[in-house]
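Team,

Forwarding the record for the chain on the shared tracking sheet. I've put the sequence and predicted structure together so nobody has to dig through attachments.
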Amino acid sequence: MNSKITVSGNIISELSEKIPSNIIALNELLKNSYDAGASKVTVILDSSQKTLQIIDDGSGMDKNDIDTLFHISNSTKKYGQINKYGRYTQGSKGLGFLSVFKFGRHVEWKTRKKNGLIFKVNYNSLLEASDISQFEIEITENNTIDKGTSITILLDEYNASSLESYFTIEKNYKKVLNAFDDKNFIIELHINGMKYTSCDTLPLTSNAKEHQLYYVTYDSDKQKIKFFYNNSEILSEDFLFNSKSYKLNIELVIFQFPPYGKAKVDQLFYNPQDDLTPLIYVNANLFNNYDLFDPNIMKNIKTTQVLNQMIGFVRIVSDDSLINFNSDRTQFLQNELTDSIRVFLSDVNKQIQVIGSQNKKYLMDFNILTLSALPPECNDIADSEKFRKYVKSDFAFRSNVVINCKGDKVSYSLFGKEKIINIRPKAATSQNGSSTVTGKEEKHTQDDNHPPDNPKGNNSLIPAVINFNCSSVKISVPTGQVDLKNYIASVYDSNGIMVDKNLLIIKKDGSKVEGGILSSVIEPCEKYIEYTYLDPRTGLVVKTLQFIFYRPESAIAGKSGERLLISLPSHKSYTISYNNYVDKLIKQINSLNHREYLELISCSLRAIFDLSIDSINKSGKFNTLFRGVHSFEDRVVKVVDYIKSNKAFKESISKSTKIDFQSLGNMLDSQRFRSGISTAHLGAHKSGAYISESDIIQLAKLLGVFVVVVNEMLNNSNIS
C-alpha cells in the first residue's frame, strides 16, 4: 500500500505572500527580462483600464521554458554567475512567475523564441486546485507575436491605485528606471500616457557641478581610495581589502551645499526620508538599503568630520551562495559573509569622510591666503617661492600651490583654480621727508569700515577692529545652516592690514561655533554671537552681533497685522477661495481670544479639515486621488504626500504664497499631520477636555499650511 504527496493550490497563496510589495514584485519581473538577454523592457500602466504590461525583446520562451517557469521552486540558474548574455544572473529560486499575482488575478503571457505562444492563468483557479501538480495550462500557437515576452495583468482596484500613486513620486519611478546598473538594458515606463526612460538619467558627475567638493573612487582590486577635485586627482590612500568572496567598487560625488542647495540633485539619489544617499547595487540590481553605506555615519562620532552630502554608486559583485536577502530586498540575511560586507562598507565610509573632511577647508572658495593684499615690502621680492608664506599654514595642499609673480600682482594656482592678489604700493618720500601714498592704495577710515588713521605715525599702535555689515540680523525660521562669517564686513589688525575672516573665533553661549556655521534654527529666538580676534600686538578684540530669528506671519483671513491663530508662514497676505465656509470659519476663529474659546475652536479646526477634504472630493479635478483611501486621517496625509512628492507642485505653491521652497517641504511632514489629525479628532469628539491650548496652537499651524495647499490644488492651473 502506497501514498503520494499532493500539494493544494493554497501553496500559491502562501508563496506569493513572500513577495512583500508590488514594487518588489515588479523588480522580480524586470529580472526575468534581464536574465532573458533583453536590451529593452517597457512597463505600461493604464490605471483607467486597470492593466499593467511588461514587454521585453529578450530571448522569449518555448514549451520547455514554460514548463520550467511553472516548475515551482526549481531553477537551473545560479545567482550571481555570468550568463550567456554577459550579465549577472538574477533569478535562482524558481518563484519569479508568482510575482504577477501580486498585481491581479488574471494574467496573459505572449512569447516567442521560435514559435509564437500564448497562455493564460487565473489565480483563483490555481487556488481552488486540490492538487496543483495536476493543474494544466493551455498553450496556443500564434506566429504573429514578436520575439520576446509580454505579460498583461488585469489589476485589481487597490493595485491600480497603489501603482498610480507610487509612480507620481519622482524618486520612486527614477529608482525603477535605474533598477539595473547596466547601460545595455533600457527600461521604459509609460504611466498613464507619460513616458520616462532610463536613458534620461543624468550621469553621476553632472549633478550640481558648481557645488561638488570631491569625486571619490574605491576599487577592491586596486585597494586605493582616490580623491578628485575639479577634475584633478588630489590624493590617493591605500585601504586594504582581503575578501575573495566578493568584489567592491565605489563611486561617489561629495558636495558642499549652501542652505537648500541639494534641490539641484537628481531625485534618484534621495532616500525615503528625502536625504541624499548613494545607491547600492548587488550584482547590478538595485538593493533597497540605505544604511549599509550611511552618509551620516560620522554624526555621532565627530561632527567636524561629517561629509554627509553625498551621492553615488556602491557596487557589490558576488556569486557566493551566502549572498542572500530578506523578502523585500532591504537587508542581507545575516551570516559570516554579509557581516563582513557590512563592516567593510562602514570602515571605508568612515575613512572617506575622515580624509575628505581634513582636506575640504578652503577648496570650494579657494580662500587660501592670509591677506587680501600683500604688504609693500613684497615689491622687492624676486623669488616667487618666498610668497608661499602668505598661503594659510593649515591648507592641506600648501606645498603644491603654484606661485607666479607678475609685476605688482601675485598668482596662486592649484587644481585648475587661481587666486590673484595685489601687492600694496610703496610709500614715496617727499622733499620735506614726509611720506606720500603712490598708486591706488586705499585710505582706511572709520566711515568706510576701516580702522581710523594713525595720528602718531606708522610706529604707533592703533586698535584692531571688527566691522559688521549690519547692526543686527533678522532671519525667518525655519532656517538652513547659517554661515556667521557672512555678516563680517571687514577685520583689520593693528597695522591697518586686512585680516582673513577665517582667523576669527566665533562663539555662541561661550562655546566655539565650528567652522562659523550655525546649525538650523527651527523656533523663534534671539542669539548673541561673539566674534573674537587675537591681534599679535594689541591683544584680544571681541564684538557681539545680535541675531533675531522670527516666524513670519501674514493673514490667511482676518485683519492683517493682528496676532492670528491661523496664519500663513509668509510675508504675503493670502485669500482662501475654495470654500466660503472655510473662509468664514477662519475669519471667525482669528477674531476670537483663543484662550477663552478653546472648546469652540477645537471643534472648528477639525471641521475645517473635513470641509477641505470634502471640497477636493467634489471638485472633479482629483477624481482618483482618494481611490482606495478611506479613513479621514489617511486622506489628509494623502493630500500632503501628493504635493510634497512633486517638485513642480511645491515650486508653484512656493511662488504663489512666497513661502520658501525648502521650508514648504519641511512643513509637509506626513507624520506631523497624522498626529495632528488624531488631535483634531479628540478636539471634535471630546472638545477641550482632551486637547490643550498648546495642542490647539500647533494644530492651527498645520491647518494654516493645509488650507493653503488645498486652495492651490483646486485653483492653481499648474497643479493637476
